[in-house]
Amino acid sequence: MSRAFGYLVSVTLIYGATTPAFRNPPRDSFPFSDYPMFSHGRPTPMMDLMHALGVDSEGQQTPLPPMVSAQNREVLQSMKAIIRRVSAGEAEALCAEVAERVASSAEFPNIVKVEIAHSGYDAVAYFEQGPAPKWRRVFARCPVPRQGARDVRSEQPRVR
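RESULT FIELD:
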């Protein structure tokens, strides 16, 4: 009797674990799931990202870490905070705050500008061709206020 019970329990568990793979349409339910986020292809490999970029004197752009860009350790929470500020029309103020944090950090001595941008990346091309975005929209651009640094925007070229 106990052997028959063991077979019945085994067959029931195997059936329960494999049936999600044959559901149509697939659905995610507890305790068995067909993991739809992994079992179906994405409609597009594009991913968009709202972020703060540090720009050096040669124009090279570097994504700034979450603690600098939004004073948060979590990447997605940082991005959400940036999205909220840009949506509220506060991109310029956010840019100035991020530039102040960059200026006060010894980690970014070569950063001269900060950009608050919305960028689109092709996830496949990112790894095959390099990390250049497919498109970028800059909402705000501001200088990093360094002590003793000249404001090159206000200088006029000398004509001889």
